[in-house]
Amino acid sequence: MASLDVARSELALAVLYLNKAEARDKICRAIQYGSKFLSNGEPGTAQNVDKTTSLARKVFRLFKFINDLHALISPNAPGTPLPLILLTKSKNALLSTFLFLDQVVWLGRTGIYKNKERAELLGRISLFCWMGSSVCSSLVEIGELGRLSSSIKKLEKELKNTNKYKDEQYQSKLKKSNERTLALIKASMDVVVAIGLLQLVPKKITPRVTGALGFATSLISCYQLLPSHAKAKTA
To answer: Which of 51, 80, 133, 166 has the least C-beta neighbours within 10 A?
Structure first.
């Protein structure tokens, strides 16, 4: 009975996770970039999977630009430095633009929007927006990690004569620092993925490199969407 309860609990967790549109999108993203890695830009089954999965993912992102539009006009956290505020708002604006233009790309690929040349142009502009948002995200994470580092050092001085690892506030800051470090790695890799998709440096960032990095960032995204107690199990 105990093993059945555990299995039921794990299945309930999987159902909860897969009910998220974002989670399903990231799983499809992993499939897409895994296929790109395998195909290396060569025609065949893997490339077909890459293209069809890419098109299917766009459905998950319909009207998703509203999320970042809302974040753009929302008030900032008290005490946030102005440079970080500007970078965060720039990231929101660029990501919202990317997601909005991506819908036009979807309309073009499904044949609803007939002007293919303009759809392709908007597709490239949208990728530049995504690359810009990833750069801003990287800079935000670097800034936030700097602030967290200063805060942790200050707390370590206060907890000098005690076991700091038993302090909840210290543990919370360490957890946030680890999460932001992972987010920085993901955002930095996404910049390279965007460069690969735009074919700005085709000799160095090949479809295989793009696929490998995209697959890695997809797995990171899947992990980030896990419930907190599930993350504790994988840690």
So the answer is: 166
